[in-house]
Design goal:
- This protein is an alpha/beta fold and 280 residues long.
- It folds into two domains: 82 residues, ACT domain (Alpha-Beta Plaits), CATH 3.30.70.260; 162 residues, Rossmann fold.
- The protein is 33% helix and 32% strand.
- The chain contains eight helices and 14 strands.
- Strands 10-9-8-11-12-14-13 form a seven-stranded mixed sheet, with helices on both faces.
- A hairpin with a 2-residue loop joins strand 13 and strand 14.
- The chain is globular.
- The termini are far apart.
- 39% of the residues are buried.
């Protein structure tokens, strides 16, 4: 009988670097929660190749990082995966649910179908929920929207449903762009949504609303590029950083001419919306 291995880590400041390193081993899936995240691999590859290299890599860089792993039988793989992804009520209006969920929802709710594969953006992580709550409050009908690090495409799909005229998502990972298009199709498809593999450099023109749910350092590094692509008076929504980093993010934004609009936090995670003065 064939087995898979589920490898679980705690969410900490090293999580994204560790995930990037593990992606080179082509995980079968990656699921994120608020407190921990899990990567899935074929059992033989895990024991013979990945675990030995991971232990060396962690010992050299992050010796305090611990992880747990367990074997999953092949026949239980889909069941295990699907059981881990359940509907998430983001707020009183919006729910994110996988396509296989049989749950019934009130007709007034906006239900967004997301099958995540390895991409980030299932609604299970606080930063995704924070981004959606601020997106809902600061999008205007007819906006053009850019989503940096689009992952599953969930923010693009919601932006279009909330009245955006055109939405572009960029992501450096090929599997994210394909997953985003699959999720767009799950939600009925839309000519208003486009996804490109690459960085912000793949986004030409200017946008009324720019979304960026990445790391603190990446947000700061991209702020000037974001400003150059923002329409006069445009808005940005940033997350992916801890509450303890919010003041640094705000300082860097204000230094470039952005004014705070609204701040939100959930547990230790933060998000904030800003706008750019017309004369910038």
């Amino acid at each position: 009988m064939k087995f898979f291995t589920a490898v679980t880590f705690q969410n900490d400041e090293h999580a994204e670097l560790l995930q990037a390193w593990l992606y080179d081993f082509e995980p079968l899936g990656l699921l994120e929660g608020d407190e921990e995240w899990t990567a899935y691999f074929p059992a033989d590859t895990w024991l013979e190749q990945i675990k030995p290299e991971l232990d060396i890599w962690l010992a050299e860089r992050f010796p305090e990082t611990e992880y747990a792993f367990e074997a999953i039988e092949d026949q239980n793989w889909n069941e295990e995966y699907e059981r881990s992804i359940t509907p998430v009520d983001v707020n009183e209006r919006i729910t994110i649910a996988p396509s296989w969920s049989g749950a019934a929802f009130p007709p007034e709710r906006m239900v967004v179908r997301i099958d995540p594969k390895m991409s980030f953006g299932t609604g299970l992580h606080a930063t995704t929920r924070l981004m959606i709550r601020l997106l809902e409050r600061h999008i205007h009908s007819g906006d053009t929207v850019l989503d940096i690090g689009t992952g599953t495409g969930v923010l693009l799909i919601i932006a279009e449903k909330l009245g955006a005229k055109q939405c572009l998502g960029v992501d450096i990972d090929e599997w994210s762009t394909s997953n985003a298009y699959e999720n767009v199709a799950l939600n009925g498809g839309s000519d208003a949504i486009e996804v490109r593999q690459g960085t912000i450099e793949q986004a030409e023109g200017r946008y009324d609303l720019i979304l960026s749910n990445i790391t603190k350092n990446d947000n700061i590094a991209l702020l000037q590029h974001i400003k150059e692509r923002l329409s006069p008076g445009g808005r940005i929504v940033l997350s992916g950083y801890l509450t303890g980093d919010a003041s640094e993010i705000r300082y860097e934004c204000e230094r470039l001419g952005f004014a705070p609009l609204e701040y939100k936090q959930e547990d230790e995670w933060a998000a904030e919306a800003f706008h750019l003065a017309e004369e910038q």
